[in-house]
Amino acid sequence: MIGGNVKLELLYPTVKEAAIEPVSAPVSDTAVEFTAKDLHPTGRAPVAVQHDITGSVYTFTVTENRYWFFDFRSGGDAANTYKLTFDALGGSNSLSLLNADILRNDMGFKATDVVAGDNALSVNLSGKPYGPATELSVQLGFLVKGTAGNDTLEGMAGRDQLEGGDGKDTLIGGAGADALIGGAGIDIASYRTAGSGVTVDLVKTAGNTGDAAGDSFTAIEGLEGSNFDDALTGSAGANTLTGLDGNDKLFGLGGNDSLYGGNGNDTIDGGAGNDRIIGDLGKDILTGGAGKDTFFFRNVADSTTSAAGRDTILDFNGKAGDKISLSLIDADTTHAGNQAFTFIGTKGFSGDAGELRYKKLGGDLYVYADINGDKKADFSLHLDGVSDLQKGYFIL
């Protein structure tokens, strides 16, 4: 067609429609091509049908439950911009754009593997929530909007803009200077796909490095690092920072933060506020900062009897409200269930599984736990500058 607008409607007998239409710049004088291929889930040979859109509307009706692949081509006019709206598809439909702008509908929603073709794309997931999670991946720089649910939106190379909308969203900008906009809910900017470590500061973004270089953050409450050595810094508000693998440095600053080191020898500083701090595996250095902070240990391997894997808390202050939580560790492995520890102060282990004691050495204090009753410690923790402990300082 020459000029005008093109609208493509995919009509399903039992679910609502998905539509694609240009929102800026008319199509070129070359006819827009539409290619549909279907692959039956049982493995029947695909059927390919090609259509040239010569009018303002082309309608394709899905008549049976198959795997549908749609290829949209704008006749070589790379200036066209198309808006994709996936509206309330039933079940767990899968919609994908591949290479030359291919839309795939697997009759159940999970949007993945979106790769830009020649044209810039604006992608909007709207309508009813699509279930507990939506995943969308894009490349070469275009706008992606999430749903009211808990979405995972992923960019790749290029200057992407990811908008999570409502819900607890995870935004993965990838390489390039991306604009990450969380919206309502607790939203995370993630660098889990980065090929090297990143430095990310939610406020002072000029110093960000790696995949985070040039990224901007709006309504983002949390950060997730890479599987390498990262430095993650929050804001004055409540943040969730997760290091994943690598020797990470996490700084919560103000607010009631939740900080997760992940595997590796991590350095974690909660800053002001009542923070939740989890070092996880590795020899971690933990600082709660001002406020009533809780240090969580979920497994005896989180802080070992060997110095190579033993955590240190630099500023533990039980009198000021700090706590050490061991409630997720089964204190007695000789019985079924998750047993609570018994605090015995400075006494030696008696041979009863589940005993928790401490020992003071100079200006330091060490916590020990026996979970199998062999009178040997299976867990240890170093508290710097602490003179004594009381049962009330623990969540057993």
From TrEMBL:
Compartments where found: Secreted
Organism: Xaviernesmea rhizosphaerae
Record-given protein name: Uncharacterized protein
Pfam family for this entry, one: HemolysinCabind
InterPro entries according to UniProt: Hemolysin-typ_Ca-bd_CS, Hemolysn_Ca-bd, RTX_toxin/Mannuronan_C5-epim, Serralysin-like_metalloprot_C
PROSITE patterns named in the record: HEMOLYSIN_CALCIUM
Major location (coarse): secreted
GO cellular component: a single term: extracellular region
